[in-house]
Amino acid sequence: MSGDGVTYAALKKDIKHRMDQTVEVLKKEFSGLRTGRAATSLLDPVMVEAYGQSMPLAQVGTVSVPESRMLSVQVWDKTMVKAVEKSIRDAGLGLNPQADGQSVRIPIPALTEERRQELGKVAAKYAEAARVAVRNVRRDGNDSLKKMEKANTISQDEARQYQTEVQQLTDDAIKHIDETLAHKEKEIMQV
């Protein structure tokens, strides 16, 4: 966004929206990180070759959590059971599915201490990328404010006040990222 005809309210709304999106993306990335407990989101990235095309697992069966360390996929079309089993095995999630009639059972193995630490590092990397993205949004916002000030659509005092508000949005987003990371790390380290 540039300073031409853009109001501060619209700019602030855009900045907040972009920062919120960054936090949402981080949460989505975290949901794909496997902890020792079963969660249906674990299978979200799995794509199944079905009916001549690649489709998400959720479109060929129902994923459920019958036990804390077990996932189950109730496959709607009996002929797709083998394809679902193969897709889960090949997804690189370290899971070993077993066909059981028209469903596929997926035991969730316990994580080793080494694997937990690895996942913690990956989570920290995701969080740092999100922090950088938030800071980039702040920089873009401040650049827009400078253009607005140069174009005389806002005064120097308003520009300073708005930059303070943008910094507050940044601090809030980064605090949210840090809290999300702390929660994920706690989840990963829980035995």
UniProtKB/TrEMBL annotation:
GO aspect biological process, one term: cytoplasmic translational termination
Give start-end ranges for the coiled-coil region(s): 145-179
Asked if the record carries the keyword Cell division, the reply is no
Q: Where is it located?
A: Cytoplasm
| Residues covered by the Ribosome recycling factor domain | 26-189
Q: What does this protein do?
A: Responsible for the release of ribosomes from messenger RNA at the termination of protein biosynthesis. May increase the efficiency of translation by recycling ribosomes from one round of translation to another.
> What's the protein here called?
Ribosome-recycling factor
Q: What's the source species for this entry?
A: Insolitispirillum peregrinum
Classification from the root reads: Bacteria, Pseudomonadati, Pseudomonadota, Alphaproteobacteria, Rhodospirillales
